[in-house]
Design goal:
It contains 12 helices and no strands. By secondary structure, it is mostly helical. The longest helix has 31 residues. One of its GO terms (molecular function) is 1,4-dihydroxy-2-naphthoate polyprenyltransferase activity.
């Protein structure tokens, strides 16, 4: 824990927010914008608000995870990026406050978006997203510790992120939007899968029962490879109806190093680039899909 009076630097707070995860927040909104344009329903201010909600939510969940894992001692032997509480550079209360501020901002911005759109039933979905962010590692029985983290990421940063962005603009969704939601959700889940693959040894030691610890090393590697294949299968299917979407296949080479690392048995820090490259491939896929759907 942080010593009395210890205060993290600005750069440490930024690192604690885990900026490498931001593609997980941006990609679903970008894909949703493309689908909204295809429906002739694009609204720049609705898109901007959706993006701010998504960014606030992921920063909030990152700080919340830092706080909850830190006070449990899960991060004491962590291999990955800096954790503020686990490393002792910030007091738990300070990190908790940062998490609540970010999640609160997501809630306020979401309320503004819902009020201006008149789609009040979406408040329920927003509440579920915020609760999901907190209870991923927070509370007495965090679902992230019982193997449900991947499902939550797929739902929140795939289905909800993409389809929500489309719906607040068009008042409906489309098959293209659904395909984009599944693709982005698969990418985002693959990022978490690579993360949890890296952390299997320390998670087993701390009693954190992620899906990766349940599937084991080999099963988790196969899951990752399956997840990153899904978006490209959908690219081909969607390309039948929107031929320009086939340009998303150009992002596949971005994953070659990640595939080699995961399939080749890389461990620990050797897997960190796979998280980065998977996130960047997801963002590139979403951008190219949005451009393709705009024509």
């Amino acid at each position: 824990m942080a010593l009395n009076g210890a205060m993290a630097s600005l750069s440490e707070w930024i690192e604690g927010a885990r900026p490498r995860t931001l593609p997980n927040a941006v990609a679903p909104v970008v894909a949703g914008v493309g689908a909204a344009i295809a429906l002739d329903a694009f609204s720049w201010w609705r898109s901007a608000l959706a993006l701010l909600v998504s960014l606030s939510l992921i920063v909030g969940v990152n700080y919340a995870n830092d706080y909850s894992d830190g006070i449990r001692g899960t991060d004491e032997n962590r291999v990955g990026p800096l954790r503020l509480v686990g490393s002792g550079v910030a007091a738990p209360k300070a990190v908790l406050t940062a998490a609540l501020v970010a999640l609160g901002l997501a809630g306020v911005l979401g309320l503004v978006l819902v009020a201006l759109s008149g789609l009040w039933w979406l408040l329920a979905m927003g509440a579920v997203c915020i609760l999901g962010a907190w209870f991923y590692t927070g509370g007495k029985k965090p679902y992230g510790y019982y193997g449900f983290g991947e499902i939550a990421v797929f739902v929140f940063f795939g289905l909800a992120g993409v389809l929500g962005t489309v719906y607040v603009q068009a008042g409906r969704v489309s098959w293209a939007a659904l395909a984009g939601a599944v693709a982005v959700g698969s990418f985002s889940t693959a990022v978490l899968t690579a993360n949890n693959l890296r952390d299997i040894p320390t998670d087993v030691e701390s009693g954190k029962r992620t899906l990766a610890t349940r599937l084991g090393d080999g099963g988790t590697r196969r899951l990752y490879l399956t997840l990153i294949a899904v978006p490209y299968v959908l690219s081909v299917v969607l390309g039948i109806f929107h031929p320009l979407v086939l340009i998303t296949l150009l992002t596949a080479p971005m994953l070659l190093k990640s595939v080699r690392a995961v399939a080749g048995g890389a461990h620990g820090r050797e897997l960190i680039p796979a998280l980065r490259d998977t996130g960047l491939a997801m963002l590139a896929w979403a951008v190219l899909a949005a451009v393709a759907l705009s024509f």
